[in-house]
Amino acid sequence: MKQIETVMRTAPVIPVLVIEDLAHAKPIAEALVAGGLKVLEVTLRTSVAFQAMEIMRQVPGAIVGAGTVLNPSQLGSAVDAGADFIVSPGLTPALGQAAITAGVPFLPGVSNAADIMLGLDFGFHHFKFFPAETSGGITALKALAAPFFDAKFCPTGGISAATAPDWLALDPVLCVGGSWVVPKGAPDVALIEATARAAAALAQ
Ligand SMILES: O=C(O)C(=O)C[C@H](O)[C@H](O)COP(=O)(O)O
After folding, report:
1. Is 193 designated active site?
2. Any keyword Cytoplasm (predicted)?
3. Contact (CB, 8 A) for 130 and 106
């Protein structure tokens, strides 16, 4: 199992995926990996999310994590479904403890100093800055990164192909997350692969 820093350094962009139809799982994962984005975050927002993760994990090269993990029960189910890593929009003591107990790479969501301090208490140094744009954007992350000089971030929420390079230029930012790579609906695999290739090319 990879460390969360290794996962974050694999590609500059983590596509945030909302899979509504299980038939879309394989073609989307194949197109993303072909385009150079190997790290995939499947949000637990749909009833087929766990099955989608299992299908995507069969695609050679794919590193598949679960997103929108809100509590220990969902974390346990995601680990059972083979999640390579776990992403949450926020951090609670119960979820932090569950991630440590499970020994799974974990990227907890933070949006302020207290969130980061809770994470540090657990020994976490890698965070999803969420929701990135509405939490103050680049200015806010720069301010937070000053006292928390050891912390590394994956800003997510409101980031686009146009703004991703500005975030990736920040030292503590190892990658960004975003749903822009895979538009909703039936997958246009050629478009997804091309968008992924452009995103992968943003590597620092
Ligand atoms: O579902 C989750 O786990 C989340 O925490 C939220 C997602 O990461 C963001 O909604 C993605 O943001 P957009 O790229 O602006 O669509």
Report:
1. no
2. no
3. no
Show the domains of the chain with their CATH numbers.
Answer: 4-197 (3.20.20.70)
Strand duo 126-129 + 39-43: pairing: unpaired
| Beta carbons within 10 angstroms of residue 202's beta carbon | 17
Taking only the tens place, the pLDDT of each residue in 51-103 is 999 999 999 999 999 999 999 999 999 999 999 999 999 999 999 999 999 99
Q: What is the Cβ-side half-sphere exposure of residue 59, based on CA atoms within 13 angstroms?
A: 24
Among residues 5, 26, 30, 41, which one is catalytic?
41
- Among residues 30, 128, 133, 152, which one is catalytic? 128
- ipTM score of the complex? 0.94
Separation of CA 200 and ligand 1 centre (Å) = 19
Identify which of 169, 164, 162 has the alpha carbon closest to the alpha carbon of residue 145.
169
Q: How far apart are CA 180 and CA 58, in angstroms?
A: 24
How far, in Å, from the CA of 177 to the mean position of ligand 1? 8
Interstrand relation of 13-17 and 39-43 (parallel, antiparallel or unpaired): parallel
Ligand 1 centre distance from Cα of residue 36 (Å): 21
pTM (predicted TM-score): 0.97
Output helix, strand, coil percentages for the chain, rounded to the nearest 5: 40, 15, 45
**Which of 45, 179, 184, when mutated, tests ligand 1's pocket best, judged by the most ligand atoms within 8 Å of its CB?**
179
